[in-house]
Design goal:
257 residues, 4-stranded antiparallel sheet, mainly beta, 22 strands, Neuraminidase, 2 helices
Length: 257
Amino acid sequence: MRLLLAAMAAALMFVPQVPNGTNLPVFGYQLVRAYPHDPTAFTQGLQYVDGIFYEGTGLNGRSSIRKVKLETGEVLEKRDVPAQYFGEGITVWKSDLIELTWQSEIAFVYDKTTLQPRRTFKYVGEGWGLTHDGVNLIMSDGSDRLRLLDPTTFAERRRILVTDGGFPVRSLNELEFVKGEIFANIWQTDYIARIAPDGHVIGWIDLSGLLSPSERGTVEASGGVLNGIAYDEAKDRLFVTGKLWPKLFEIKIVPKR
């Protein structure tokens, strides 16, 4: 019995967290427009800055950073990541494009205009999602904590525990900073958590139904789950996509019916 309970506890550590029955609001979405998206892109990071769509993709031997034309999904510029690295989240900080790697404990810094490598940073543990709040880089590692990092030195400043009604929210993945909130995709789910700067979840966004049943069946067989959030601050537009998804969606967050 003791071994069984230990095994069950270990399994629960990897169960994705979704709204847990607290009274937090759950929002839906209004579809504004669907755009083509490279169905071979294992999307790990997404950002829209100054009219340019940046995308980071993953998998060993297939990881890359890209500039993508929003309207057509055309890859305008691309730099492949060395095959030994599994690319993860990205963010643009001033003139830098910063990319995490999954288990190599290294971040790559590129010139955001030319995509030429500039330098690297080391960190401990896994790298998942990355964004910034204008002061700190904000990094996820798949746990229930977000790391706040110095954008210049990559030194860790502090960590934030993310909770919903006092319960830790694990599997925090792709991140985007939107109007003072941290949006975090919960890995292997259709949910995005809306997180206050102090770590409290203040609401959830349910994005189920973006793909048709046939599209979803095709991508999920290869691990193609929701992953990718980008916010166009200048025009107040929110974009989402997923790993290996054939479409990228512009949506508006609305009360759930």
